[in-house]
Structure formats: structure tokens, C-alpha cells
Amino acid sequence: MNARQFYVIRVALIVALGGFLMGFDASVISGVVGFIGPEFGLSSIQLGWAVGSLTLTATLGMLFSGPLSDKFGRRTILKVAAVLFAVSAVSSALAPNFALFVIARMIGGFGVGASLIIAPMYIAEISPPKMRGRLVSFNQLNIVIGISVAFFSNYLILRWGQSGSALAQNLMVEGFEWRWMLGIETLPALLYFVALYFVPRSPRWQIMAGDHKDAKATLTQVVGESEAQKQLQDVIQSLEADKEKEKVSLKEIFHPSMRFVLTIGATLAVLQQITGINAVFFYAPMIFEQSGIGTDASFMQAIFVGLTNLVFTILAIMFIDKLGRRPLLIFGLTGIAAMMFLLAGAFQSASYELDAEQVEAIEVPVDKELLEYMYGITYPNDIAFKRALSETLGPEAAAEYESELIVAAIDINPNLILFGILGFVAAFAISIGPVMWVMFSELFPLRVRGIAIAFVGVINSAVSFLVQLVFPWELATLGNSITFLIYGLFAAAGLIFVIKVVPETKNKSLEELEEELVRSDG
């Protein structure tokens, strides 16, 4: 590795810390949902709102961060995002009620939206073409590292709060575990804000701003002087070709010449979320509890989700510039569909039955005599069993002790559920997880890149919000099997689209891709 490669990798890693914060901020909620439900007395839709509210404002953040980064610079917007992450972490940890909790999460959502859009954009604009796929994937890698760290820190804080140690009691961890889970994010947010002072401005943004001298200096550090001069001229020519357009507007991305790339970008944006990845990441302990393993074990298995995501994202980074974007998408979507169908079948075959011995073995403060009315009855699915619990114990008690009672009643192979979830995460992480963001940074021409990525990012975030919002309702209304079946069908439809429509973009400069995919299509 030469000095220039080391330099660009160091810069990309620092900028990609925004992905770490995004992953942590988004998935830390997975350990919190089991606490805030009873704490604030939430319905299934309110619980979905507590999770999805961050993504709602992330949608707005993505809508405005692209154009703002065109005006003020990529690095400046990332600094603002770091501040928003820190403010959200502190305020959500201290929230005294549901309304203020949601507001705090929404503040963090603006940071998530900005980092999702601007970090990969910045990295793509500073990267040499042959390294671009791997370097842009650093952002996705850091997202999954953030997700993994959040799962792990949630588990550690949960165990710490249960330990009864003097330090845990002095710091008021016991009874306030979920507040510590949220507040710990303040530390990496502050680190990110400081680290951004050690990266240059995006050279392509500098050219857009008319600062050709500094842009050439930055490019020289990345690709050498002769190549820097060539790239400088290529970007200038690309911008001059559109100089009669004084201001980029949203309607420009709907020009007929943009139809092909916009269709691909929008479809990939929907597909990445509609297959259920954030339902798994944000509700992992809840899903594992549905397989009857209990709360502590569900937090531990959520760690496996994070580690699987990390390992297969690293594999994606290793292969994305060797195999290409398209083969990874085809392989991954095939795996996603297969694993979702497996989960649907596993939950469909489960049955639920309580008996006196099982009920006596569980420690829940409910009137166990009431449960005698359910003895000897085999319930064919989770919906029927939960409905019977609600009718027998009352809605509040049934919801509060649902996990313990499912553990006692369910007849299912929990290892099959674990395999299906981990297989789904692996297939996602090696394919559409990182590949979508790489292709976003490649598909759109420089002049409209900021607003175009913001637009498809908004679509991605909006679908993510809907998935997160309705997932608790889906489990309560449709059941586990139907929910996962729906995700599998979406994955199968997406696989067909990728095979028929999506082109390969590896080993081509951004300017070459613009000429091939946009101008020739006009």
C-alpha cells in the first residue's frame, strides 16, 4: 500500500464514522423497545412509532442534506450531523415521557439522514475509480459495526443492571438500563465531530465551488499529479456542459435522460427496505422472543445478528470490485427470499399449548388459576395463542408477560429460527445492503448527484419508516408466518428486476458512467 492509498483510506474511514453513528443510533432501539412499552404504556402502533420516528426525520434529513451539502460542503453537513447525534443521545436517555422521547429520537433522525447521504457521496467523490467500491462500502461497514456494537452494548448494560454491583447501583443502571443504552452514544458522536477536522473538503465539491487550486491539491494526494489534472479537467468539462442551468431543481432528475438511472435507484431504494431488514435489526430481541427462548437469550442472539452482518459486509467489500455489483445482488436476493420463506414455514409449523407443570415453572406475577382455562388446548399459531392470553389475563397482563408464556407454550425449533434470521442477514449484508449505496454514488451525474441521491434516499427512508412502524402491528395482527412470507415475496420480485434491468458499474469512472447511462439514454 503506497502513501496515497493509505491517505484516502484514512480519510474514508474517518468520514464513514458517520455510518457507525447511524447504525448505533438506529439499532440501539432494539434493546429499548422491551422497556419503553411498559414504561410509557404503549400500544403496538405507538411502539412502532417510537422505533420509526427516527427514520421519519431521517427522510427529511436526506431530502435537505444533499442540496445543503452542495451549498455548504459535504464536510460541514457531516459536522452538523455529529452534533445532532450527541443531542439526540442525551435527550432520549433523559426523556421523562413518550412525547419527549419521540422528539429526541427525531432529532437524531436528521443526523441519520445526513450521514446516510453525505458520507458515501463524499467518499465516492474522493476515491480513485478502482478503489471506489471498497471505499464507499466502508460506510456500510461502519453502519453494521455500529449495529453490532449497539447489540453488544445493550446486552452488557442489561447484564450490568442485573448484576447488583455497587457501581451499577451508584450509577443508577439498575431499573434505568434502557436510558444507559441510549445515552452511551454521546461518546462516539463527540469523537466524530472532532475527527472531521482532520479530513479535507471533497475535491469535486471544491471544483463546483470554484476552488480549483485546493481541489487539485486534494486530488494530487489521492491519485498523483498527472491523474489529478486529468480528473480536474473531466469534472470541469462535465460542469461546463451544464453551465447554462443556473440552479439544480428536483424536476431535473425526472428528465427523460434520467429515466433509466432513476428507475434503478428508486427500485433499489424500495427493495433494500421492503424485504424487512430493519424489522430484524430494530426488533431482533422481540423476534427471538417469539421463538420461545426468553429475554436474556434473545439479547444474546441479537449479538449474533450484528456479528453476522459485520462478517458478510466485510466479504461484500472484498468482492464488490472483483465480482461486481450485479452478481452480488443476484446472489443476495436469492438468499433473502429463501431465508424468509424458511422463517415463514417454521413459524407456520409451530404450535402452542400450556399445562400446569409449565405454568408453575415460570415466574410471573399473574393469577395462574386463570391460565387453567387454557390447559390442554393446542393453539395452531401465535395469533390464536396471544388472543387467548389476552382474553384470559386481560390485554395489559398478557402483553407484559407474553414472552415468558410463549417460552412455556411454544413447540418450535428455535435453532431453525436463528438459522433463518442469520441467513437472511448474511444474504442482505453481502448484497443489497452495501451495493445499493455504492450504486447510488455511481448512477447519477455530478450536477444532480446531491439532489438525486437525496431523492432516492428519501424513498428508501420512507419505506424503512413504514416497515418499522407496522412491524409490531403485523406480528400482532397477521402473525409471524405471514409477515415473513410477505418479505420473501418482495425479495423474489426484486430478484427478477435485478436480473432483467440492473447494469454492471464496476471499474468505470463516474464520468464514464454518466455518459453511458444518462446521455446515451436521452
Structural overview:
There is one protein chain. The protein is mainly α. It has two domains: 3-199 and 241-348 and 415-521, Up-down Bundle (Growth Hormone, Chain: A), CATH 1.20.1250.20; 351-411, no CATH class. The protein contains 26 helices and two strands. The protein has helices at 3-15, 17-27, 33-40, 44-72, 74-94, 98-126, 129-163, 166-170, 177-183, 186-195, 203-208, 212-223, 225-240, 259-274, 277-290, 295-319, 325-348, 356-361, 382-393, 395-400, 402-409, 414-429, 432-443, 446-477, 480-501, 510-517; strands spanning 351-352, 410-411. It has a two-stranded antiparallel sheet with strand order 1-2. Helix 1 (3-15) runs antiparallel to helix 6 (98-126), helix 4 (44-72) packs antiparallel against helix 24 (446-477) and helix 5 (74-94) packs antiparallel against helix 9 (177-183). The radius of gyration is 24 Å and the shape is globular. The two termini are 41 Å apart. The mean pLDDT is 84.
* Sequence stretches where pLDDT stays below 50 over 5 or more residues: none
What is the β-strand count? 2
- The domain tally reads 2
Q: Helicity range of the residues?
A: over 70%
CATH topology of the largest domain: Growth Hormone, Chain: A
